[in-house]
Amino acid sequence: MDLRFGDSKPTDEERAAVDAVLGPPGSAWEGAEDRDAADLRWARGGRAARGRRDLLLPGLHALNDRVGWVSEGGLDYLCRRLTVPPAEGYGVATFYSMFSVRPRPATVVRVCTDLVCGGAGLCGEVEARLASVPGVGVEASPCLGLCERGPGAVVVRAGPPAVAFPDPAPPRNHGAPPPGPPPVVLRARPQSPDGLAIPAPPAIGERGPGRSPGSGRGGAGEKTHATLTLAPATPDTLTLAALDPETFSSEAPPAPLPQAGQDTLILLRRIGSVDPASLDDYRAHGGYTALRRAFAIGPAEVIREVTDSGLLGRGGAAFPTGRKWQATAARPEQPHYVVCNADESEPGTFKDRVLMEGDPYALVEAMTVAGYAVGAHRGYLYLRGEYPLALQRLEHAIAQARARGLLGDDVLGQGYAFDIEIRRGAGAYICGEETALFNSIEGYRGEPRSKPPFPVEKGLFGGPTAENNVETLVNVLPILTMGAAAYAAIGTEESTGPKLFCVSGSVARPGVYELPFGATLGELLSLAGKPDNLRAVLLGGAAGGFVRADETDIPLTFEGTRAAGTTLGSGVVLAFDDTVPLPRVLLRIAGFFRDESCGQCVPCRVGTVRQEEALHRIVARTGADAADDIALLRDVGRAMREASICGLGQTAWNAVESAIDRLGAYE
Amino acid sequence: MTAIPLQPPRRLVEFTLDGAATRVPEGATLLDACRAAGKDVPTLCEGDTLTPKNACRVCVVEVEGARTLAPACSRAAEPGMSVHTDTERTRHSRRLVLELLASSVDLSTTPRAAAWIVEYGAEPGRFGADAARLNEEPKVDNDLYVRDYDKCILCYKCVDACGEQWQNTFAIAVAGRGFDARIAVEHDAPLTDSACVYCGNCIEVCPTGALSFKSEFDMRAAGTWDESAQSETTTVCAYCGVGCNLTLHVQDNEIVKVTSPHDNPVTHGNLCIKGRFGYQHVQNRD
Ligand SMILES: Cc1cc2nc3c(=O)[nH]c(=O)nc-3n(C[C@H](O)[C@H](O)[C@H](O)COP(=O)(O)O)c2cc1C
Ligand code: SF4
Ligand code: SF4
Ligand code: SF4
Ligand code: FES
């Protein structure tokens, strides 16, 4: 490889950000500032550096966290350290919506404008209020997974806390929320003349020798930035949080589960009653009995139990987990990997967040069981970039488990080595697709690979990989503690066990519900408080389909929804009453797919654009007026479904088609 | 004594192609099988010297029992498969892919595109006059070649040729995503500020004319480009000892561009800057 780097240099701050992830450079070849005699004699780096390419994404996060954007100098330095061609580094940086390769304000407020939250008009209002505040930018965001208490928003502030270094700015206004646009210009950070933040000096005590490299590779080891989720967000709370995310600590505690305390719960049993920060509390609530049982019966028996339980994947595709594990375990190539898909960016889905925030040790234990079963010694947890609380709790849980011998070289003294690494996504729904997720971890663009080969043969880093959804993994614990037979007795013959449903939209009590498979849509809706004027329900999220308000007897099972010509997907149940303008919802869905297409294949890259254009044209038309564009939509939709590389393009027309055919959206 | 390892014998895979029993060596793609059987399957992102990215989806065929269509250029034949290459489903997707492409980029210099558009009955105009297009201005930032991404179908061939499959320079990659994805050098800089070494191998593989010789670009702009008046002569590059084959394209007694035969077992159509662009000395008649 013949790499050429430009002459843009990193700032000290950017160098520190990258070095915190990669450690200090070993030689001038790797980007050290001073060249020593040895550097003139031999080149170092090469294969070893290339072997760390998977640190590209954590490195981009580090740059973005510290300075708010990824500059030429910063990116070149990161690429040089990893021997990644700068053109490829640029291709990766521009793939993710959380990164910017242009200067942007240090504080970015990302306001959800998706299906549930979008109607609130919050984004526009916040934009107006913050328009005159330098150093703060507002962006519309796809679903943030906060649907049960929307409208949701995330505030991201780059750089160490402003209070930690001498700040010539006037004192901040902590008073009552300003009515309308804030009258005074509040300077949270030093600003450049064009209103964009200039990189701030590092906080005192943060620089210099002796500072340990960042802890988690993808994690938030040191205070280099602040991320805050707000839901429900109001213009007032968002304005305050944007001005000072550090001291605005009123992050609402997670909404209580609607079914909290019911003794029928299996997956949600501990949530709300267990202390998510305490390993002891987790153990007192029955934690780690599943792993002990796994060690007692051995990997083959664990796989047999999971197979016999009939567990189907909860990530959307409903693939039998036992078969996936068996196929991975049986591959002769080494090493094997376990990957937990915690990307959860499907609009309307938030169950994995609730599990991870409320019961993080359960996921750590379940991944350990999975690793043991398939013969993996390393697990990757790919976590949605916009889930700061889940990140913090999982990092803590993993560190605790490691400290107590529940992860590491000798798990539970059983001679089995297993550890988990968290990787933060950076704003790309497509990275939830299993093979795109591998590319993302490996430091490539999050473009899906073509299958075959399947991940069980050739997955992460080319090794046999079992990739599972968070909810799927958490199901493995009750399978092992109650036994496959007892587990399989829950639910129906084909869809066994308990299932989480993400209910949101026009219902009285939105939230995550746990029901045994087989309950009907109507039963679930009445638990959640069905409105009288229900018009339609979107099952399975944006990639799913609409059903009518009178179809409430559809059983919520994989086979039942299939028989009804729709899908359960990842368990989204999004209710719309008759006040919601359907064409606007369809436009939003089409816009989502257009935004989130990776752009690799033609049917999806161009098809999603043509779909949105056609929906724009017919937004106010019906009947014969809309007929030509509906025919066009059908043609494009069919090609997207049949000829796209991955599930994104293949499902991008589902919801619109069902709205036309089932709801008569344009009749 | 050196031992020369023998290739293990390649097993044959038996499957049916449009109803006919077919045997191909293990590892052969469905497209290989189609071509061996004399079937004309359209392709754009597939190239004879590269592993295709299967991104254009114009070569899709129907594999019985599969939910979606399969790209013939990349799907390996499997024993017992039953494949149909010319069904209503395959024709539909091919027509739509051609319509989607032709409505968003300029296919005027893509060989065979016009014929396929007729063959599949594609009507790119039906998405209306306001249909989003790339609308890119040609990037003319050096004297050797022009990047006109308004013609780019994002087939990834240039990326693969510049990167790990041939040149190992990695000067270009895909940046952005979705409809905004574009081929770009680092920081979207001009080519002259990039890692490009001007081997021109990307031009060699580009199927659309999005990458072209400056000479060709200028002559097209002036209306003087005339392929029917060009002759091609394959010769040996005289610059260094590698001895690559050059094909000189000559119009009106002037070399207008230089390509290289893809079937050359050593170079597979790749050249370096001297062989590709250093032809002026040949026609320096002073
Ligand atoms: C565009 C796209 C996005 C996806 N996003 C997710 C996701 O966020 N979380 C998830 O678990 N699965 C997601 N999936 C499904 C995964 O590809 C995969 O099927 C799943 O993680 C397998 O786990 P399971 O067998 O436990 O369901 C997505 C699929 C596609 C096509
Ligand atoms: S279907 Fe869409 S998201 Fe999937 S590979 Fe193709 S362009 Fe990318
Ligand atoms: S420039 Fe040419 S070779 Fe490169 S992706 Fe575009 S069409 Fe393909
Ligand atoms: S093309 Fe380049 S490498 Fe090939 S013979 Fe000519 S000078 Fe040598
Ligand atoms: S030629 Fe097969 S997908 Fe492009």
Automatic annotation (TrEMBL), chain A:
The keyword Iron is annotated on this UniProt entry: yes
Family matches, as InterPro entries: NADH-UbQ_OxRdtase_51kDa_CS, Nuo51_FMN-bd, Nuo51_FMN-bd_sf, NuoE_N, Nuop51_4Fe4S-bd, Nuop51_4Fe4S-bd_sf, Soluble_ligand-bd, Thioredoxin-like_sf
Biased composition (Basic and acidic residues): 1-17
Entry's Gene Ontology molecular function annotations: 4 iron, 4 sulfur cluster binding; FMN binding; metal ion binding; NADH dehydrogenase (ubiquinone) activity
Keywords: 4Fe-4S, Iron, Iron-sulfur, Metal-binding
Positions with biased composition (Pro residues): 167-184
Keyword Iron-sulfur: yes
Pfam families associated with the record: 2Fe-2S_thioredx, Complex1_51K, NADH_4Fe-4S, SLBB
Disordered: annotated span: 1-23, 165-223
Residues annotated as domain NADH-ubiquinone oxidoreductase 51kDa subunit iron-sulphur binding: 583-628
Similarity remark: Belongs to the complex I 51 kDa subunit family.
Protein name: NADH-quinone oxidoreductase subunit E
Organism: Streptomyces venezuelae
Automatic annotation (TrEMBL), chain B:
Record SMART domains: Molybdop_Fe4S4
Domain 2Fe-2S ferredoxin-type: 11-89
UniProt entry tagged with the keyword Cell division: no
Entry's Gene Ontology molecular function annotations: 4 iron, 4 sulfur cluster binding; metal ion binding; oxidoreductase activity
4Fe-4S Mo/W bis-MGD-type domain span: 230-286
InterPro entries given in the database record: 2Fe-2S_ferredoxin-like_sf (IPR036010), 2Fe-2S_ferredoxin-type (IPR001041), 4Fe4S_Fe-S-bd (IPR017896), 4Fe4S_Fe_S_CS (IPR017900), Mopterin_OxRdtase_4Fe-4S_dom (IPR006963), MopterinOxRdtase_cofactor_BS (IPR027467), PSI_iron-sulfur_center (IPR050157)
Pfam families, per the entry: Fer2_4, Fer4_7, Molybdop_Fe4S4
Keywords from the named record: 4Fe-4S, Iron, Iron-sulfur, Metal-binding, Repeat
Residues in 4Fe-4S ferredoxin-type domain copies: 143-162, 188-216
Protein name: Fe-S-binding domain-containing protein
